Amino acid sequence: MNNKIKPALIGGVILGLLSAIPFVNFVNLCCCAWAILGGLLASYLYIKNSSTPASAGDGAVIGAIAGAIGAVIYLVIGIPLALLSGAAMREMMIKLMANVDPRQADMFRQQMEAQGESVSGVIVQSFIAALLLIVFAVVGGLIGIPLFEKRKAGPMAPPPPPGPGGAPFAA
Which among 84, 79, 8, 69 has a CA at the least distance from the CA of 44? Predict the structure, then answer.
């Protein structure tokens, strides 16, 4: 298990930091891309340092560990950053919408002002995002195994000799 911790730690730190940094975290809007990348990186590093071929189960475990590490980092760093940068992000979204449709931007601004900014809302959204990071990091770990593992598994054991009456012998 120790040979899985280091790759998962590296992948998890990268996915957690990139998911928490404002504006950089917009890449996660594309199917949690940072989480998938963290799982892919973790599985790549595991395969590179493993003496035996990796299985899909190894990829899932490495992705889950990387996702959990990334989720903790995201929660510790992301919640305070979301609270600090929430107004700036909201204004940026309103300006972008104003370029496309000024009426929609005005409606969006009114809705955001009515909703207000609550700490509990940011915390709940962050925990949902952290759960998604774990799930998509597992997906990344699973995708990484067939992408990066080019070694063949060892030969399969021969079948057991037939027992009396031609039935396989059970030990």
Answer: 8
